[in-house]
Design brief:
The protein is mostly beta strands. It contains 1 helix and 9 strands.
Length: 159
């Protein structure tokens, strides 16, 4: 009788673990990481190089995502490196789909602000799809230059 209870308890525990695993969040890194670098001359013949890179981390269950950025700035003269600064972090963005599911995701950025972007640093696009049904949503997010981003998402139609 005691071994029967142990087997029953083991089965119940296994089912609970599978249910928890099925509901767990899964995160995927986007396939479109970018890096942009610039150089500048400062007073006294100092050279400065700055590089920034962006990537996106996507929750495949909820369709929430994080925009991550890392940057490095290097200042040097003709003989030595004077200063190195690095910074980075991720910012949470709203979910793309209203309901939980099983989603795929990718994103890309515009080039740095020295391009034809008159709205500041430019913008980025986000694409997400449902892995279980034919459903794709495309979003474009641009900086308004007035302190807030403008975001619009469109559900794709299939013809």
């Amino acid at each position: 009788m005691n071994s029967g209870m142990n087997i029953g308890f083991g089965i119940a525990l296994s089912l609970m673990t599978m249910t928890t695993a099925a509901c767990a969040d899964e995160f995927k890194l986007s396939n479109n990481q970018r890096i942009a670098c610039s150089r500048g001359l400062s007073a006294g013949k100092l050279n400065t190089a700055t590089c920034r890179s962006y990537a996106y981390l996507f929750n495949t269950r909820t369709s929430e995502y994080f925009r991550c950025q890392v940057s490095l700035a290097l200042t040097r003269d003709n003989k030595e490196v004077i200063n190195v600064q690095a910074d980075g972090g991720c910012t949470k963005r709203p979910r793309i789909f209203d309901t939980d599911g099983n989603y795929s995701f990718d994103a890309t950025e515009t080039e740095p602000p020295n391009t034809n972007s008159f709205f500041g640093p430019g913008g980025y696009s986000v694409w997400a799809s449902d892995n279980n049904v034919q459903k794709v949503r495309g979003c474009i997010i641009i900086s308004s230059g007035l302190g807030s981003d403008i975001s619009k998402c469109i559900d794709m139609t299939f013809q």
